[in-house]
Amino acid sequence: MGNKPFKLFVRIFLGIGVVLSIFPFYWMLVMGSKQNKEIYQIPPNLLLGSELFHNIETVFRETSFFHSVLNTLFIAITSTILILFFDSLAGFSFAKLKFKGKGFLFTFLLGTMMIPGQLNIIPSFYLMDKLGWVGSYKALIIPGMANAFGIFWIKQYCTDAIPDSLIESAKLDGCSTFKVYFKIALPIMKPALAFLALYSFMGSWNDYVWPLIILNDESKYTLMLALTQLKGLYTVNYPLVITGTLLATIPLLIVFVIFSRQLIAGITEGAVKQ
């Protein structure tokens, strides 16, 4: 009986958290359904307006929306696959293999996480220019196919999740190091890989600054760049921009739901095995 007030409090608290989490998306929907002059009303009107479908039609008409979605999907999926492979391989190596200089290399890797990304823009662009990759998707995919956070994340996961005895047993059975990684370590990493895939895909999907610097052909624009075409020269139609942002968020939410289910299933499976 004594736990009922506490459970009620937890449910109320979680309900408030859900409402606060959903409200920004609802507010985007409301703003996207208004005319430009209506969004300046005080107090704001929290009810849906009548311009949503008109704004959606305008977004499709004034931008190459679906083409840019395909461009972004190609970049995001390719980048995510490469990140999963290289980060999982490097993270497993740092966690379970012994080699000279491992401590120094891992410390150096962590040090790179402290460098602001803005400082890398100029040298990265200079390198891409020397390689002749400016204007191509290679400049968006290859430089980020391994990152310090992903390696650190996989390394920390493998340290506790993969027993050393399991690796030693596999080696005694004649497995090569790569086969141990591919056949034994990789299946165990699924929960960590699901999170890293979601994190990497979202980062690639939402990236704006680097594609803006690299891409110079509108036919190769990512979705974030295509949405900038909604801005006028002197004025900004904010409901139109918000509508485009709302449409750009929908595929991301779908991916989030898919990978979230896999992540929860993987964590539950791992907990049961332990």
**Using only CA atoms, what is the Rg?**
23 Å
* CATH topology category name: MetI-like fold
| N-to-C span | 32 Å
Write the element-wise H/E pattern from the N-terminal end onward: HHHHHHHHHHHHH
Oligomeric description of these chains: single chain
| Total count of strands | 0
Count of domains: 1
Largest sheet: none
Contiguous low-pLDDT stretches (5 residues minimum) are 269-274
User: Can you tell me the overall shape?
Assistant: globular
Fraction of residues in helices? over 70%
CATH class: Mainly Alpha
Structural class: mainly alpha
> Strand share of the residues?
under 5%
CATH superfamily: MetI-like
pLDDT average, as an integer? 85
Query: What is the correct CATH architecture?
Result: Orthogonal Bundle
Number of alpha- plus pi-helical segments: 13
Short description:
The chain is an all-alpha fold. It has a single domain (49-273), classed as MetI-like (MetI-like fold, Orthogonal Bundle), CATH 1.10.3720.10.
Q: Explain this structure to me?
A:
This protein has a single domain, classed as MetI-like (MetI-like fold). It has 13 helices and no strands. α1 runs antiparallel to α13, α2 crosses α13 and α3 packs antiparallel against α10. It is mainly α.
Output the keywords.
72% helix, mainly alpha, 274 residues, 13 helices, disordered C terminus, MetI-like fold
List the helices and strands and how they pair.
Layout: H1 4-32, H2 52-62, H3 65-96, H4 102-112, H5 121-131, H6 138-141, H7 148-161, H8 164-172, H9 177-188, H10 190-206, H11 209-214, H12 223-227, H13 238-273
Helix pairs in contact: 1-13, 2-13, 3-7, 3-10, 10-13
